[in-house]
Structures are given as C-alpha cells and as structure tokens.
Amino acid sequence: MKHGPIMNEIVQAGGENAFAALRQFVRRKKDVERCELCSAEVGAGHPHLIEPGNRKLLCTCNACAILFSGMGTRYKRVARRVLGLPDFRLSDGQWESLMVPISMAFFFRSTPDKRVVAFYPSPAGAIESLLPLETWSEIEVENTILNEMEADVEALLVNRVGHARGFGDPEYYMIPIDECYKLVGMIRFHWKGLSGGTEVWREIGKFFEELKNRATVVKEEAHS
Predict the structure, then answer these.
(1) Percent helix, strand, coil in the chain (nearest 5)?
(2) How many other CB atoms sit within 10 Å of the CB of residue 50?
(3) How far apart are CA 219 and CA 86, in angstroms?
(4) pLDDT, tens digit (0-9, with 9 covering 90-100), for 133-152
C-alpha cells in the first residue's frame, strides 16, 4: 500500500515516534492554504481569482481558477506576467497633476467603475485617489504599453520614492493586481510610527528587488 510523503513519515516512525510524527502532521495541516472555492490544498504559487465588483481576491486551485474564470462568471483570473517598463514616460509635472499624495501608487482599469482608478498604500491599507482623466489620457498616449493592460487583473505600479528623495530613478512595472495588494498588506503590517520605521522600508526594498528580478523588460519602442 502506497502512502504520501507525510504518511510515510508516520508509518516509518513506529511507537512513540509515530505519535510525535502525527502531531507534526496535524500542526502542518493547520498551516496548509486551501482553495476558497473547493477547499483543496493549494501550493505557494497558486492562482488567484478576483471579483471585480468588490475587488475581493480568492486563493484557488488550478481547476477552480479555470472553471470559475470563464465567460459569464463573476470572477476573473488574475494575470501572472510581470513587466519592467524602463522607458515609461511620466514627467514630474504629470505625476503632480495626478494628485497622488505620496510617491507610490498603482493604477488599473476597473470594469465596474468604467474608468481607470488609482490607489496608494498607507498604514491603513489601500486608499483611492481621485484621478484626473485628462492627465491619464495624456500618459496613455505617450505610453502605448498601457493599451495592453488587462482590466481588473493588471495594474501599473509606480515607485517614485527614490526619485523624490534624490537617490534613485523612478520604477514602473505592469504587474498582477494581487501583487499590488500584497505590497499594501506588507506596508500595513510592518509600518511603525510616523515614518514607517526601518523595517518597512527594508521590506519595500526587497519587494521591488524581487519584482526587478522577475520582470520581463519591455522597451516602449516595440509598442510605438
């Protein structure tokens, strides 16, 4: 009779060691992530679905991600590509006219709202910023890659923190929307005091370093 790897540990342990292995198995099972639609176990790289109407993200298995993201369902499967946009054009004046109060934000097309929306991370979570459509239209004309951004599930992530402080260039990425909310959650969790503290800025740096390593670099000339 064949057993899975965890059960093999229990079977092979014997006696008191078997009970110890069983206790470890129970503890491990509590930490397992499960599909929020069928309760199947999911791995670390599991897909996500989003319900655009309330922007709720669901962890799912591959089967449910395919089944529930078809035409006529209320869910959309979150995109997985990460694109680095080193040629993205956004002047300081254009950024200021977007009226985002900090130097980091993400933008995506919302199907329910029928417009592009802007959010920025804060210690309280994601906060929506009023987006002047005239300025955004101008930015779209200068950056045709934005025409490829899939509604509800992909976002333009802008990091101008280093640029604003005079020690780095702005960073622009087109990323899955769940990565944006991951960044928001990380900032909310690690933020301390008025300035955030060293830990949160270290985590932000790690987040963008990982994005850079994962990203496929896209030159704007290829989309002119």
Answers:
(1) 40, 20, 35
(2) 22
(3) 7
(4) 788 999 999 999 999 999 99
